[in-house]
Structure of TetR family transcriptional regulator:
Amino acid sequence: MVRWEPGAAERLQKAALELFATRGFEQTTTMEIAESVGLTERTFFRHFSDKREVLFHGQQLLADAFLAGVDSAPAEASPLELVAAALQSSASFFPDERRAHSRTRQSVIDQNPALRERERHKLASIATTLADALRRRGVDEVAATLAAESGATVFSIAFTQWIREDEQRSLAGIAAEVLRELLTLTATAAERIPR
Amino acid sequence: MVRWEPGAAERLQKAALELFATRGFEQTTTMEIAESVGLTERTFFRHFSDKREVLFHGQQLLADAFLAGVDSAPAEASPLELVAAALQSSASFFPDERRAHSRTRQSVIDQNPALRERERHKLASIATTLADALRRRGVDEVAATLAAESGATVFSIAFTQWIREDEQRSLAGIAAEVLRELLTLTATAAERIPR
């Protein structure tokens, strides 16, 4: 009979991140992660398919947060207003109390080329999911891709700033500023690039 | 003594693409590629490190074409004008007579998840290279990333359209239209997203 482990996934995740950060991702085994919180490797594999998934299992929730933002936007919202709503909603996934965790996670990822590739892939999937959501809202093919990719770029830049040492602003605030910078950049160009 | 093989790289590339397209990438060996044009496998490996490199060896030349565009832009060009120049320059890398080749190459890549990942990685590298070039032109960190990523997205959308069946427009023309669409999208948003 499988015993129910209260909060096992959270305990495993916290322990794994600490081990990855101190010993290195490659050097840490699933057995060590499990044992460090008094659980078995079998329990680990009930929650995560491998140690990499400890770092990426929130991906679907993050994608859902983007989509919830699109859903909450008014019917007349333009494509980039939908993206702005998605960015604000995604930021709720990263409250300030999660900043330290996100910083540690990123430092682990930065040290490992395969994890960096996986993180890039995660962002690309979120952009694709967001573009699909825009299309379902009636945005045409090209505009949906342009707006969604812009949203993913803004998210990525804002997130990098949010986890900087000593950064105090919220992710929502930073994302709004970066999006505004994109609008300013393109407004300047719109006047000067010939039709 | 190594015999000089006139145009061996080009012949190998053409043969490889045909084999990949008809038999499948996984099913084609470097030996078969070499033998199909009367060359040895050793000759193949003098030109390409593996069969995947046949599909990607133009990457540096493409990146160089983007950079040449940035270099050719006037000193007062705004970040997105630099990107517009880079896009126009990159299009010169894909004259219309290369369209059939590009179509076949893309169909091979689309059928293989690892090749799709490699192609995504290639585009990401080009965006990074372009952002670095913008920084060297004095564009600040965030603006350089936003502009370069926008450029990579525009390129990717334009390229997908350019290789569509029956498409007649040049890549330069399509890229200019897609960039214009991005400017229109953001102009609409700039009026409506609160500061």
Chain A has a mean pLDDT of 93. Chain A is about 75% helix and 0% strand. The CA atoms of residues 33 and 109 of chain A lie 17 Å apart.
